[in-house]
Amino acid sequence: MNGSRASVAELVDNVLAGVGEVENTEIVICPPFIMIPDVVQHLTRTAVKWGGQDLSEHNVGAFTGEVAASMLKDYGCDYCIVGHSERRTLYGETDEIVAKKFTKAQEYGITPILCIGETLSQREKGETEAVLTRQLETVLDYCGIESFADTVLAYEPVWAIGTGKTATPEQAQEVHAFVRDKLSIIDKKIGQEIRIQYGGSVKADNAEDLFSQKDVDGGLIGGASLNANDFLAICRAA
Predict the structure, then answer these.
(1) Which are the contacts of 86, defined by CB distance < 8 A and separation ≥ 6?
(2) C-alpha dihedral, 219 to 222 to 226 to 228, nearest 10°
(3) Domains, the chain, ordered by start
């Protein structure tokens, strides 16, 4: 929840000015809902795509303040973040609600960026794999493995978001490999081809080390995306 119309326009234009230096990398910008129309005006007919930060699990109706998948699609959104750690922790979204939102996005041709991850307490208790398994299996039980053929996963170690802490490249790789192996057991092709991004305080100075890991396929960028130079440096690293 950042930005004004003026600052968003400046940020997007500055990103567009540098995307020519980025090769073989898909770039997606997910602004606050109210900023999407402005972002669309800047990004139309460019290689940069756009998406939503969240969506409702419902189609339409008396859900004041919510935004439907059909509305996002009406503005050309190709992607939508689903199950972000802040939605889970601050707004009480359960695994079941996340699974419903995941399905709703795909119903409207929107690729979900499904966020999974553990808290510091869960990591310290050695529960990382159990938490990720629960979060994944809820979606798998609800939607099936086939739905992951059109999905981006984002591993968010909650303990490394906004804290200045970052998982080491080796820690990120270990978790990403676990997730990929878990899906590969069910469907080898989907497991090997799915993009798994890292989303825990990625910065310009650590992006290359993180992205060089075998199973880290890019980043879900938070704070660093508010600075065009930092964001472009991360894109170049990807």
Answers:
(1) 161
(2) -10
(3) 5-237 (3.20.20.70)
Catalytic residue, from 57, 86, 93, 156: name it.
156
Query: Which one is catalytic: 42, 57, 84, 176?
Result: 84
Told to judge if 26 belongs to the known catalytic residues of this protein, a careful annotator would answer no
At residue 164, the pLDDT reads 67
Tokens describing residue 85? 């750690």
Catalytic (active site) residue 156 = yes
Residue 85 pLDDT > 70, yes or no? yes
Using the predicted structure, report yes or no on whether residue 176 has a pLDDT greater than 70: yes
Q: What is the DSSP letter of 110?
A: P
Spatial distance between the Cα atoms of 193 and 99, rounded to a whole number of angstroms: 21
Q: What is the rounded average pLDDT for all residues in the chain?
A: 96
Give yes or no for residue 166 having a pLDDT over 80. Answer: no
Rg of the chain over CA atoms, in angstroms? 17
Whether residue 145 has pLDDT greater than 80: yes
Measured distance between the N- and C-terminal CA atoms of the chain, rounded to whole angstroms:
25
Q: Across the beta sheet with 28-29, what order do the strands follow?
A: 28-29, 49-52, 79-82, 111-116, 152-155, 195-198
